[in-house]
Backbone:
């Protein structure tokens, strides 16, 4: 054999590896375990792409090195196959999703196998397999039983084109994430998971894991924990000036009948800046605030009652109510994203109501404005135009006074104008001072720092029963219902007598029935609702006629626990009739393998997939069925691969690189090594066809070097090879992930040794070192060298201390930090301080400065010697 022919050797070795179970992970083996995970792919019609190959090649290299280091490695793979893409593809191709998914998986599996991944294929899982989703449903039933799943009438984002309710995170720029259509809001009864119960733990437990800092930040920001003060603005006006006009009223009955956090007689706001409370000039409530409903409903009699001052409802009152009603209706049509977009103009309407400032007793007008979100804090804000940009904008637009109460420490103080109008006109948004500072014009708090004032004011408000310190989260509960066919059926039954009943665990899975019309229905109901045979079932509790829930789970459901499923894969795929749950029955196994040691995937999954799966894992921990509170000890992310033109790869741009073509033309080893070589792992990089050719040439040179070169007596090769061992060992490591520099150090090594050649031992070391990157060529060459075992079962090469170079080394000689000359010694001598000192003392320049003194010596072996006087 003389030529490197990847298309011949690659399939050959792939088959031998598979037949010999070379990459099997052994349950409960006494070796240390290493669980290495890449995100399982969605088997789409577009097949696996070069982005998958990037992550899989790199993680496979890590796994292979770990195996050679003596670890019991688990590198599993499976298919995340429920969800809209498959359903949409099925609709497009007029093929049932079951068939589409089976074909796509078949194809993707063939692709992945052609890349020579050291995956333990005996653990392959598929989220759409009924044996798998039985347990997805089981987790839901447990959540339901524990009160973590509840139903709610919620305004959902409705995509009129996909005809589906979307979670907030599936709406991007007010458009459907999948099809780009502008979404609408609709109220639908949904199943919702109480992820907010876990908000603190989802933040605090991050301290126990090793994630890229930006990934941790994403988790924390998404949860959005914010600490501050709830402040109550009283709606009773005793002691205030009597109102002088009809449009200025104290509708005490109306307001007393409840608002805010269940309090009566108050509007409660949440603020992170209670130090600015003396600068409050209005209150703005969200259109969804209960007060607004009451106000709208109060037209006519209730309105009359609520005035409480005996005067008749005037046309002004009706005008106000109508204006508020219109405003609220138009707000409903806007998405939350639009409403909170800082660049959008703030709008609002005066409600005709007033509240009392809790510290000054001042009368403050109440407005309704849609930049306030109904579901956050108390659904109301105190408006501090001088110190909050949004409030400033609102105040300028509606002529509300602007009062400066925080002064910048250090910087020159801009005195507040006595004339609020003038202050308003002269002010520009850059004058909004939103930092902490020192309080001015703030009664007895004047002079305090913001920090001190926040503590003090919160305490004082608490004493008066008008406030308390508070924590709020931007995270919302997780809408878990989809009105679609291609998902796990929600395992609940609606009984007219017993209410909502969970399907008993021994009756799981609730199988997704085969169906003719799986397209979304225009009613917004799931297509399952039309399957009366399937829908009508006896109630599991009372036996009376009842109906199945017809919603399905979101595409996240299966990926929430798939890394747990890999551990139990054989048991999931070939279920026995064991009673009880699969997790409890296999506690020891889970304890052995979990948590995942290194998890890598796309940056697009580091917010929600990570958050959801961490939540579900914590829930499983609370059930006592998994061994820890965090599923992934380490999380990394790879950058995207862009097209050769530097743009995002897309069919429409025509810049998509198909990994199958690379395998066919150059072989999988070239694909793998190029994908690692392409650039820093975490960065987005453009595909470069010339780079592929370069890597392929490199592999041809390796082939030639191993097959033809002979030992040459050059003592420098051992030195270079030993350095290569050092470099590759530290680059190919889950803590550094410098796959690209590892590959380039192989390339420079080849440049150095190609002329001199390698001896047998050096060849073997090189092959072992290269095996994780290019598993096929190294396996073939290993056998060509006469071995009958696998290179992948060999120990990882060790870096040897003290291997010296035969080449010359230049050492910088300094006296008192100034360079006085260069000294050339052999590599063997370069680390010897005494010898280098002696030689340096023979240099005339050095002697000039040092004759007659005994200097101190600072020696950096192989680099610098500095004499200190
Ligand atoms: C007065 C104030 C003065 C505020 C100031 C800020 C600066 P985070 O950090 O996101 O929690 N806010 C409170 N509830 C809101 C709601 N439902 N919709 C919209 N905005 C709301 O933000 C908390 C701040 O956002 C609160 O602090 C409140 O404005 C506003 F100089 O209160 B602040
Ligand atoms: Zn019943």
Residues:
């Amino acid at each position: 054999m003389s030529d490197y022919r990847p298309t011949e050797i690659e399939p050959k070795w792939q088959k031998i590896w598979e037949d010999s179970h070379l990459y099997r992970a052994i349950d409960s083996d006494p070796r240390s375990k290493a669980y290495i995970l890449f995100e399982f792919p969605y088997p789409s019609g577009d097949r696996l792409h070069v982005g998958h190959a990037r992550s899989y090649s790199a993680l496979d290299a890590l796994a292979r090195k770990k195996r050679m280091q003596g670890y019991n490695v688990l590198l599993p793979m499976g298919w995340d196959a429920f969800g809209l893409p498959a359903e949409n593809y099925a609709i497009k191709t007029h093929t049932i999703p079951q068939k589409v998914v089976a074909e796509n998986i078949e194809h993707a599996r063939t692709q992945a196998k052609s890349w020579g991944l050291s995956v333990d294929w005996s653990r392959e899982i598929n989220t759409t397999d009924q044996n798998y989703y039985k347990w997805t449903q089981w987790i839901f039933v447990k959540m339901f039983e524990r009160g973590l799943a509840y139903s709610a009438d919620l305004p959902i984002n409705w995509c009129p084109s996909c005809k589906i309710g979307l979670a907030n995170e599936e709406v991007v720029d007010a458009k459907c994430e999948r099809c780009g259509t502008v979404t609408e809001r609709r109220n639908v009864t949904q199943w919702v998971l109480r992820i907010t119960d876990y908000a603190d733990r989802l933040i605090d437990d991050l301290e126990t894991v090793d994630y890229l800092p930006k990934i941790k930040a994403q988790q924390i920001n998404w949860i959005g924990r914010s600490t501050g003060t709830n402040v109550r603005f009283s709606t009773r006006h005793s002691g205030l000036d009597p109102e002088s006009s009809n449009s200025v009223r104290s509708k005490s009955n109306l307001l007393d009948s409840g608002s805010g956090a269940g309090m009566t007689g108050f509007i409660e706001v949440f603020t992170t800046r209670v130090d600015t409370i003396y600068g409050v000039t209005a209150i703005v409530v969200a259109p969804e605030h209960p007060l607004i409903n009451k106000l709208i409903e109060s037209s006519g009699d209730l309105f009359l009652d609520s005035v409480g001052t005996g005067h008749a409802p005037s046309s002004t009152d009706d005008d106000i109510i109508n204006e508020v009603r219109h405003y609220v209706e138009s707000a409903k049509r806007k998405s939350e994203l639009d409403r909170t977009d800082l660049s959008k103009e703030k709008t609002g309407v005066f409600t005709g109501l007033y509240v009392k400032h809790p510290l000054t007793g001042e009368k403050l007008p109440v407005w309704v404005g849609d930049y306030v979100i109904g579901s956050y804090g108390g659904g109301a804000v105190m408006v501090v135009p001088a110190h909050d940009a949004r409030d400033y904008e609102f105040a300028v637009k509606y002529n509300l006074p602007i009062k400066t109460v925080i002064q910048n420490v250090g910087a020159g103080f801009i005195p507040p104008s006595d004339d609020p109008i003038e202050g308003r006109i002269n002010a520009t948004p850059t004058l909004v001072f939103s930092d902490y500072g020192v309080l001015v014009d703030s009664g007895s708090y004047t002079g305090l720092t913001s920090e001190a004032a926040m503590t003090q004011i919160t305490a004082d408000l608490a004493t008066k029963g008008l406030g308390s310190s508070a924590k709020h989260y931007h995270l919302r509960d997780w809408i878990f219902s989809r009105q679609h066919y291609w998902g796990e059926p929600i395992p609940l039954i609606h009984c007219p007598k017993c209410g909502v009943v969970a399907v008993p665990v021994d009756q799981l899975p609730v199988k997704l029935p085969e169906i003719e019309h799986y397209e979304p229905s225009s009613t917004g109901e799931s297509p399952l609702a039309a399957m009366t045979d399937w829908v009508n079932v006896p109630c599991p509790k009372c036996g009376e006629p009842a109906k199945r829930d017809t919603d399905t789970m979101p595409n996240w459901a299966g990926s929430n626990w798939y890394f747990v499923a890999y551990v139990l894969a054989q048991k999931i795929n070939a279920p026995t009739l064991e009673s009880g749950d699969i997790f409890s029955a296999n506690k020891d196994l889970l304890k052995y393998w979990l948590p995942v040691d290194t998890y890598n995937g796309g940056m697009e999954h580091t917010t929600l997939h990570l958050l959801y799966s961490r939540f579900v894992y914590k829930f499983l921990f609370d059930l006592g069925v998994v061994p820890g509170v965090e599923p992934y000890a380490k999380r990394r992310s790879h950058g995207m691969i862009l097209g050769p033109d530097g743009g995002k790869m897309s069919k429409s741009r025509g810049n998509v690189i198909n990994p199958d073509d690379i395998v066919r033309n150059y072989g999988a080893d070239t694909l793998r090594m190029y994908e690692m070589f392409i650039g820093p792992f975490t960065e987005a990089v453009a595909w470069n066809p010339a780079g592929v050719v370069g890597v392929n040439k490199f592999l041809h040179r390796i082939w030639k070097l191993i097959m033809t070169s002979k030992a040459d007596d050059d003592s420098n090769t051992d030195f270079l090879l030993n350095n290569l061992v050092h470099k590759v060992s530290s680059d190919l490591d889950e803590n550094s992930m410098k796959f690209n520099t590892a590959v380039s150090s192989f390339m420079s090594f080849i440049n150095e040794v190609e002329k001199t050649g390698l001896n047998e031992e050096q060849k073997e070391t090189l092959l072992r070192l290269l095996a994780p990157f290019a598993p096929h060529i190294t396996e073939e060459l290993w056998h060509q060298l006469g071995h009958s075992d696998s290179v992948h079962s060999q120990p990882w090469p060790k870096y040897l201390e003290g291997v010296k170079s035969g080449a010359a080394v230049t050492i910088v000689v300094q006296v008192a930090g100034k360079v006085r000359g260069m000294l050339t010694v052999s590599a063997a001598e370069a680390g010897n301080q005494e010898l280098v000192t002696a030689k340096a003392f023979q240099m005339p320049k050095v002697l000039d400065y040092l004759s007659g003194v005994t200097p101190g010596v600072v020696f950096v072996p192989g680099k610098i010697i500095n004499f200190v006087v």
